[in-house]
Amino acid sequence: MSNDVNKNYTDKELASMSQSELAQLGTELDGVTVAFRKERFPLENDPAERRAARGVATWLTISVLSGIAFLAVYLFWPWRYKALGEDGHLWHTLFTPMLGLLSMVTVLSLGIAVLQYVKKFVPEEISVQRRHDGPSDEIDRRTVTALLNDAWSTSTLGRRTTIKGLLGAAGVLFGLVVVAPLGGAVKNPWRAHELDYHGDGTLWTSGWTLHEKGVKLYLARDIGTTADYHESPTGSHYTTQGLSRLVRVRPEDLAAGGMETVFPLAEEHVNDGDKFNPEADVYEEHMHSIHGPRNPVMLIRLRSSDAERVIERQGQEDFHYGDYYAYSKICTHIGCPTSLYEAQTQRILCPCHQSQFDALQYAKPVFGPAARALPQLPLTVDEEGYFVAAGNFIEPLGPAFWERKS
């Protein structure tokens, strides 16, 4: 605090001071010396001032419009998956880029508008202040308020209705641009929809839950098929008709000590082997199975010598088929894919945080942060020799949550 300034003002004296007098007193009490101050537009109705105001308003308008466009895209754009060659594929692929572009324009144009306003309207000033300690007196609080009011009035923002309204709208839309995408991450775990390859929307269901509805589910591997390109006299196009992304797995498809990632495939969506139909179009259903967040399963074939040392989990003694075991690929730590199998040590490894699970002891965690075994899928072989699910998982998949049973 400055010790050379009179601080013994009565409330009446302070009340009688003008805004500028209180602001000047405030700078003196804070030990501030205004070395230089210059208004940006000292002359009224300066054409340069109107041009500057239009420039700021233009940037704010762009921010408002792009913010509205962001919300419109987020709410109404066709975001559901469309395979290559399907109608709407282009719109689907543009969904995320449009959100990124519009959010960038919203934030960037708002930032430019604020910078332009500060640069072109707030008075140019150089002030020097001495440091001080201790609490503030009543006179300091009064004068600080006056200084803030003085800063507001000298910025001229209060009388610029258009810019003020646009700034408020841009600020609100900026907040919505930041907050709105979080709405997609908020999920009611009890809000169920019709059961499909993604489950029914609840945390304890997956594509494998279709087994409980009487659906025969094959264990199928992804062969990476993409849409075929066709040319004809009427034009060119992509098609998925007759193509299969998922094909059924037989025991002989895996070598001893091998591992295969498999997904649930309903009998009605099979299009391979003796059930191949060149007219069928099941590609989209296959992609839904692959994209199901809790669907991936590790199908492991143990060597015979290793299988003799297996310790079965109580109540799950018949979940395997011979030397074949199927475990959820979703790590019970934080949901990363346990995509590595080390046949020499019979360890299943999660590359994210190095959790390790013992394949010879019901995928029990033996190292790392995971504290729960990988859930095991009951499996068997049907009359045609293909692997099928003998039941659904009996515990939640992925990271533990409040409804888990183990």
Automatic annotation (TrEMBL):
Q: Determine if Secreted is one of this entry's keywords.
A: no
Q: Which GO terms describe its molecular function?
A: 2 iron, 2 sulfur cluster binding; metal ion binding; monooxygenase activity; oxidoreductase activity, acting on paired donors, with incorporation or reduction of molecular oxygen
Q: Which UniProt keywords apply?
A: 2Fe-2S, Cell membrane, Disulfide bond, Electron transport, Iron, Iron-sulfur, Membrane, Metal-binding, Oxidoreductase, Respiratory chain, Transmembrane, Transmembrane helix, Transport
Q: Which residues form a coiled coil?
A: none
InterPro entries the record matches? QcrA_N (IPR045603), Rieske_2Fe-2S (IPR017941), Rieske_2Fe-2S_sf (IPR036922), Rieske_Fe-S_prot (IPR014349)
State any GO CC term.
plasma membrane
Topology in the membrane? Multi-pass membrane protein
Q: Which domain of life is it from?
A: Bacteria
Looking up Pfam families in the UniProt record yields: QcrA_N, Rieske
Its principal location? Answer: membrane
Instruction: Report the residue ranges that make up the Rieske domain in this protein.
Output: 322-388
- Transmembrane segment boundaries: 56-77, 97-118, 166-186
Q: Function of this protein?
A: Iron-sulfur subunit of the cytochrome bc1 complex, an essential component of the respiratory electron transport chain required for ATP synthesis. The bc1 complex catalyzes the oxidation of menaquinol and the reduction of cytochrome c in the respiratory chain. The bc1 complex operates through a Q-cycle mechanism that couples electron transfer to generation of the proton gradient that drives ATP synthesis.
Which protein family is named in the record? Answer: Belongs to the Rieske iron-sulfur protein family.
- Recorded protein name is Cytochrome bc1 complex Rieske iron-sulfur subunit
Q: Which organism is it from?
A: Corynebacterium tapiri
